[in-house]
Specification:
Blueprint: H1 4-10, H2 19-68, E1 82-88, E2 91-100, E3 113-118, E4 123-131, E5 137-139, E6 147-152, E7 160-163, E8 171-178, E9 184-190, E10 195-197
Antiparallel strand pairs: 1-2, 1-6, 2-3, 4-5, 4-8, 6-7, 8-9, 9-10
């Protein structure tokens, strides 16, 4: 009979993974790593899109503050003018902050330029629309409006919304999104001056 001490002396249990156990473990870790990476990328894109929406909203709010306050335009000695933000169909990767020197509610030339903003990180202005009081929308993608201007001028805090089609508007809607995904945010400017991001 073999004694227990001899068995203990010659029998040493394996101290590692078998090949199958190793492959299963590596597969599980790989799946978890890929899932985290994809979710992190989607989260980052969502955060960047939200930041862009709030930046555009703040630019419009800045135009409202400038338009309501007594602010000199550059060093021209002009104090009584409106300020606005304009979006153009030809430039879906930027927008313009301007001083409305000729009081037409539209950015005309570089002489009215306060600042030009560029959109980065693969985001674009997908569409911009102006809504009439009866609810009809004039949009860049469907009605071929070439620009949307939102200006503010003392003493009223109301937004003056203009497009290339003319008319009176109660709301401006700017839709932004990532060029490679369906994620979108909207900046809504009411004619009463209220600005919101949705």
């Amino acid at each position: 009979m073999i004694s227990v001490e001899i068995i203990k002396k010659y029998y040493r249990p394996s101290k590692g993974f078998s090949l199958v156990e190793l492959l299963v473990t590596v597969s599980i870790f790989s799946f978890i790593a890929v899932s985290v990476f994809v979710r992190n990328s989607e989260f980052n894109n969502s955060v960047l899109l939200s930041n862009l929406a709030y930046d555009i909203g703040l630019s419009i709010r800045q135009a409202q503050v400038y338009g309501l306050s007594v602010r000199e335009f550059g060093s021209t000695g002009e104090f009584d003018l409106g300020y606005g933000v304009e979006f153009r169909d030809a430039d879906r990767f930027g927008y313009t902050f301007f001083g409305d020197l000729d009081d037409d509610g539209v950015y005309d030339a570089s002489g009215e330029l306060v600042e030009s903003y560029s959109i980065k990180k693969s985001n674009i202005i997908k569409d911009f629309c102006a809504e009439t009081p009866d609810g009809a929308q004039h949009c860049a993608n469907t009605n071929y409006i070439t620009y949307l201007g939102i200006t503010f001028k003392r003493p009223e805090p109301d937004a003056i919304i203009k497009t290339s089609l003319g008319g009176t508007y109660q709301r401006a809607i700017i839709t932004i999104g990532a060029s490679a995904s369906s994620a979108e945010k909207q900046i809504i400017v009411e004619s009463t001056g209220q600005i919101s991001v949705q």
